[in-house]
UniProtKB/TrEMBL annotation:
InterPro entries in alphabetical order: CUB_dom, SEZ6_CSMD_C4BPB_Regulators, Sperma_CUB_dom_sf, Sushi/SCR/CCP_sf, Sushi_SCR_CCP_dom
SMART domains with a match to the protein in the record: CCP, CUB
Domain CUB: 2-134
Domain of life: Eukaryota
UniProt KW keywords: Disulfide bond, Repeat, Signal, Sushi
Name the record gives this protein: CUB and Sushi multiple domains 2
Species this chain originates from: Gopherus evgoodei
UniProt keyword annotation of Disulfide bond present: yes
One family name in Pfam for this protein: CUB
Alphabetized PROSITE patterns for the sequence: CUB, SUSHI
Residue pairs linked by disulfide bridges in the UniProt entry: C165-C192
SUPFAM superfamilies: Complement control module/SCR domain, Spermadhesin, CUB domain
Length: 201
């Protein structure tokens, strides 16, 4: 839907009519806001000098990941910006166009806006993106595969998670993934699939 205010922790944004072609002369705005912009993170810092414990303030940011992207190059655009003032040129992060799926985008504060504009000539399929509220400097929780387990419970830059499957299941994908500085995991969460049973003849 166009002209929508969205709140975290996660959701999906698509161009109008997706997966059918979008309209001519479209003008759509979305503003995404973290659920709780003032939440306090649970990461503790021990101060040796004072012997006290402090809490790091975890600033929630918005992570936008594209699954599909198909716009008329140079004429139909999706502009992505920081904050809640849609269209503010001073806060523009990216102006996206064409048919290449963009890299993920992470805001620098608790809000992100998107502005989708098309001309009157050619219509393509548009875009589909997911948004997720994450702590600044993190990759977000990738989850645990069905029939599997995970070692590691922090998702900050540099953190590593290890996965394994229950007996009778085997792991497909990477056993270990790392949170990169781009706020993206080094690989997708693996899956656990049932081991094939060979029949005895």
């Amino acid at each position: 839907m166009c002209d929508t205010y969205l709140r975290g922790p996660s959701g999906v944004i698509t161009s109008p009519n997706y997966p059918v072609q979008y309209d001519n002369n479209a003008y759509c705005v979305w503003v995404i806001t973290a659920l709780n912009p003032a939440k306090v993170g649970l990461q503790e810092i021990w101060c040796k000098s004072s012997g006290s414990t402090k809490f790091n303030r975890a600033i929630p940011v918005i992570k936008l990941t594209f699954e599909e992207f198909d716009l008329e190059r140079g004429y139909d655009t999706l502009t992505v910006g920081d904050g809640g003032q849609a269209g503010d040129q001073k806060t523009v992060l990216y102006v996206l166009t064409g048919t290449t799926v963009p890299d993920l985008i992470v805001s620098t504060n608790h809000q992100m806006w998107l502005l989708f504009q098309t001309d009157s000539v050619r219509n393509l399929l548009g875009f589909k993106a997911t948004y997720e509220e994450i702590d600044q400097g993190s990759c977000g929780d990738p989850g645990i595969p069905a029939y599997g387990k995970r070692e590691g419970s922090t998702f900050r830059h540099g953190d590593t998670l290890k996965f394994e499957c229950q007996p009778a299941f085997e792991l497909k994908g990477q056993k270990t993934i790392t949170c990169q500085k781009s706020s993206q995991w080094s690989a997708q969460k693996p899956v656990c699939v049932c081991k094939s049973v060979r029949r005895l003849l």
